[in-house]
Amino acid sequence: MHITNFQAQNYRNVATASIDFCPGVNLLWGDNAQGKTNLLEGIYTFARGKSFRGASDSELCRFGTDTYSLSLTCHTGGRAVTLGYRYAGGTRERRLGGAPVSRLSEMIGHFRAVLFYPDHLQLVKGGPGERRLFLNIAISQLDPLYLASLSRFEKLLANRNALLKDAQRLGFLDRDLLAAYSEGMATECATIAAVREKYIAFLERESEALLHALSSGRERLTLRYTGGGSKEDYEKKLTSSLDREIAAGCSLFGVHRDEMEILLNDIDARAYASQGQKRSLVLSLKLGEGEVARARSGEYPVFLFDDVLSELDEGRRAFILSDAGERQVIMTSCERRGFEGVAANEICVKDGVYE
Ligand code: ATP
Ligand code: MG
């Protein structure tokens, strides 16, 4: 899959832009604060459904305006697909191939992208929530049933937590309702955990090979899912710890507590990996995510790499820049230098203008 054109109006520091991309490596280069990341953020909206920097729609409108629109045309499955997003008068309008789309979930999966953003080092450095979020976003783009199961789970979790909170504060508990929520949650947990475990096994194989190449054979990656289990396992946990859950006022077991551990040469990467090793690990996971997506869907997703090369030594840089093959990569850099003969398309970014 590759993007052919992207348009933005009144988005962040962009007044109006229409940018053509080509397959292979596209370089966005320019000084700090010119609009490189803003563009990736706009593009990634179509993969994720919202800003990856957590901005609200009103924050995304260019200062002094209250409307913005984005449109992305990509080539996928042998045809062109155009996705549109418009925010005006406090409401959102989504379009797929010109037709309005009401639900966000109907937008997800048509355009698939893998994003590397410097903050994503949190994937290794941060808490378990970062890794669950990574899994949820990666798998949701490939599997609409996973996304559906996840949103049912989140509703059940919110309801169950509200019940436990009431029990904690008011001492009143509707046990039948709680049992119904627990059963529903256990069903979703077993489904979600099984999909995650399968995904992780696949991801580990791909990312391990990539890290091996990236580190010239020095580093070995292992991924481990902790938690998990059958519906009965989850149900047992959810029913046997009621007193503790009431004391805590929230659900203590479920896929919202499960973890994907990352080991580097058999030790916990979070505690021991160096800065460059963490970056390499995250890159291997992101590139691996792309390989899994290609195996599942037949096409590579688009790779959006924000400032990916800093902190990497020569060997690792060369690996990233070597042969994009069928992949479309859109990467940002403050410098044009170092991309000679690599980028098929160079876009100079200056004050929200792309040339
Ligand atoms: P760096 O190399 O430092 O990462 P960048 O080119 O990636 O820079 P961006 O993150 O794209 O920079 O941001 C460019 C500018 O956009 C920032 O100066 C920011 O203040 C501005 N900006 C962000 N939101 C808005 C908005 N809603 N309206 C106008 N300008 C905005
Ligand atoms: Mg930036």
Describe the structure.
With 355 residues, this protein is an alpha/beta fold. It has 2 domains: 1-112 and 301-355, 3-Layer(aba) Sandwich (Rossmann fold), CATH 3.40.50.300; 120-300, Up-down Bundle (Glutathione S-transferase Yfyf (Class Pi), Chain A, domain 2). The protein is 44% helix and 24% strand. It contains 11 helices and 15 strands. The strands form 3 sheets. It has a 6-stranded antiparallel beta sheet. The protein has a 6-stranded mixed beta sheet with strand order 8-12-13-3-14-15, with helices on both faces. Helix 4 packs antiparallel against helix 5. The chain is globular. The model has no long low-confidence stretch (mean pLDDT 94). Magnesium ion binds next to helix 1.
Topology record:
Elements: E1 2-11, E2 14-20, E3 25-29, H1 36-48, H2 57-60, E4 68-76, E5 79-88, E6 91-96, E7 99-101, E8 113-116, H3 122-125, H4 128-142, H5 144-170, H6 175-214, E9 221-226, H7 231-240, H8 242-248, E10 259-264, E11 267-268, H9 269-272, H10 275-297, E12 302-305, H11 314-321, E13 329-333, E14 345-350, E15 353-354
Parallel strand pairs: 3-13, 3-14, 8-12, 12-13
Antiparallel strand pairs: 1-2, 1-4, 4-5, 5-6, 6-7, 9-10, 10-11, 14-15
Helix pairs in contact: 4-5, 5-6, 5-8, 6-7, 6-10
